Amino acid sequence: MPAALDPFRITDKLDEDTLDVMIGRLEVRGHHPYFAKPLSDYLDRMEIDRRSAVLDLGCGTGIAARAIAARPGFEGTVLGIDRSDYLVQAARRFADSEKLSGRVRFECGDSHALGLGAASFDAVIAHTLFSHLDDPAKVLAEMRRVLRPDGVAAIFDGDFASLTFELADAERSRRMDDAIIASLVTNPRILRQMPRLLKDAGFAVDAVMPAIVTEVGTADYWKSAVESFAKLAPKAGILSEAETTAWVGEVLDASAQGVFFGSSVYYAYVAHAV
Predict the structure, then answer these.
(1) Reported pTM
(2) Were both Cys, which of 49, 113, 244, 272 would link to 73 (CB 3.0–4.6 Å)?
């Protein structure tokens, strides 16, 4: 299979139509209970409400940053960083509409090389970032650098090597799973490597919190994902638009017939610096 160009890795280079599709998916996904509950759970585990300065890396539309700022017990501030100015502008609009702009702000930046001072934050999160990174170890080093000695870090993402959508033909299902994963994810096994990466970066793991997102019969959470793939997946150069459209049609038809199966495992790692 040829090398892919994960669109989530190059958000600063995508056209606005593609980014609008991405924004729609990020918002629908982020507000769905399947995603909102794991976020709330790992924020609780971080004791985020008592943190005064929080950094959200690869913030996208600011789903995680806004969720933190909106918590009734949170009185600190949140800084969201993303490489795409278009996504940063969207995050600012959402925060303004939710009357959160006093507690959260968003800036363009590269998580691999943050222009931020050492020991500046007492909590750092990376919410669905690491599966799309060029150099995960470098980003972990930056997280460790900007974190205060008594701070806490969290990484949440999909174990996208487990992502699957079953079609009528099992072999075609396997081939299309592989192609979709390769088209949309740079590091599908990154969460399996995270114990080693965190240790090497100077972190100790406090908690690992799994979440399985499986829908059988009819797609709800996965429906908007599959629909967004029609626009996003061909950007990687592995699947053509026609191939992707045909696959999307098959998956959505399975849902309409009540025979859908879609699943992926997600994990949150909560860790502290050592």
Answers:
(1) 0.95
(2) 49
Q: Which of 116, 91, 117 is nearest to 105 (CA)?
A: 91
Q: Which CATH superfamily is domain 7-159+187-212+266-273 in?
A: Vaccinia Virus protein VP39 (3.40.50.150)
221 token code pair:
């959470």
Looking at the DSSP bridge assignments, the partners of residue 157 are 267
Q: Which of 89, 87, 68 is nearest to 77 (CA)?
A: 68
Please say whether the dihedral angle defined by the alpha carbons of residues 218, 60, 95 and 229, taken in this order, is positive or negative.
negative
Instruction: Tell me the CA distances in angstroms from 224 to 28, 139, 178, 202, 231, one per residue in order.
Output: 7, 29, 19, 38, 12
Q: What is the pLDDT of residues 223-271, one digit of tens each?
A: 999 999 999 999 889 999 999 999 999 999 999 999 999 999 999 999 9
The strand ranges marked E within 40-146 are: 53-57, 77-82, 104-108, 121-127
In this predicted model, what pLDDT tens digit does every residue of 81-90 receive, in sequence order?
Answer: 999 999 999 9
